[in-house]
Every structure is written in C-alpha cells, then in structure tokens.
Amino acid sequence: MADLVYAISASLDGYIADDEGGFDWGRPSDDAHRFFNDLQRSVGTLLCGRRLYETMRVWDVWKVEDLDEVQREFAEAWLDTDKIVYSTTLDDVPEPRTRLERTFDPRAIQTMKHDADRDLSIGGANLAGQAIRAGLVDRCALRVVPTVVGGGTRALPADARVKFALTVTRRFDDGSVLLDYRLLSPH
User: Fold this and answer.
1) Tens of pLDDT along 27-63?
2) Residues 6+ positions from 31 with CB-CB distance below 8 Å
3) Which residues, at least 6 apart from 142, have a Cβ–Cβ distance to it below 8 Å?
4) How many domains is the chain partitioned into structurally?
5) Does residue 166 sit within a domain?
6) Is residue 155 part of a domain?
7) Domain range for residue 132?
8) What is the CATH number for 49?
9) CA distance 120 to 109
10) CA-wise closest residue to 161 among 183, 181, 139, 143
11) pTM of the entire structure?
12) For residues 111, 114, 117 and 122, what is the CA-based torsion angle, rounded to 10 degrees?
C-alpha cells in the first residue's frame, strides 16, 4: 500500500502563502529543491486543488531543455506523475496525465492508496486539510522557511487533531529545515 504524502514549504509562522497570495519568500535553494525532486520521483499520482494546479501547470509547458539542472530534474519527475485536480469551477484540465474530479471522496483515495505501487502526494491547503481530517495523510514533509509572513493561507488545518511522529530532520543550505512526520493516529 502506498503512502499519501503532504509535502509543503511553510513560513515559520505556519503559512504557505502570505495574505496577498505570495509565496516567493519560500523559493527553495538548489539543496532544498533536490529534496523535493527526489520526493516527486517517488510519487505516482498528485492530488491537488485548483489553485495549486494553476500554479504548477507551467511544468507541463516549459521546455525541459531550457531549464537549469535542478529545475529540469523536477520537470522530468513532474511529467512522469499522474495528476488529479479537484475543482468545481474548472471546465477541463488539458495537460497530459491530468484528470478532473468534482468532489473529494476519502473512500476513493483510500482505494487509490491501496492499489498504488508508488506513493501519492497531495497539495493545496484546503484539499490537504480534508485529507488530514479524514486520517488519510500518512506522511507530512514540512519545509519550514525562516520567514514570518504574519498571515495568509495556513499550511495545516486549524480544526484537525492528528498525531504524527517526527522521523527525519534536515537543514538545507538556505536555512530552511525539513521536518518529516509519519502518522501515528488520526485522532
């Protein structure tokens, strides 16, 4: 059975985007980017919400040969990943290996985890929050960026009670820190 991984970069005060929607303060160094490249290579399917999809779809259109080595590695892993976009407002998702779902069904996700031979990842705070509350997230790979943004989109849901155990810590050369947790109990 595959894991469902929520991998995210967050400010020191717990936000993935500031109150204006910006997240360039969290741009990873090559060292941190390589970690996420390795993680992306282990993923067979990405579950994401509309906003994350709209942000990340550039990886489907950029010419891989025009990217630097670290970005090229990520792009290649991205192109090798199936994507499921959860949205009630999009009409279609034209990129290859991408499909649209209207509703998040925890039972369907559990079936995907059971049947998958590669891990699944989930992105987008709202969608990840639903999965966390449903007890579906097996691993949370949180890169903490040493920046305080004061408000915005929370990385983790305020209304969930879940126990995780710290399994890995790592300091990246940009001063950010990876805190990698595994699910202990959904309640």
Assistant:
1) 999 999 999 999 999 999 999 999 999 998 888 888 8
2) 172, 173, 174
3) 7, 8, 10, 155, 178, 179, 180, 181
4) 1
5) no
6) no
7) 1-11+29-141
8) 3.40.430.10
9) 9
10) 183
11) 0.93
12) 60
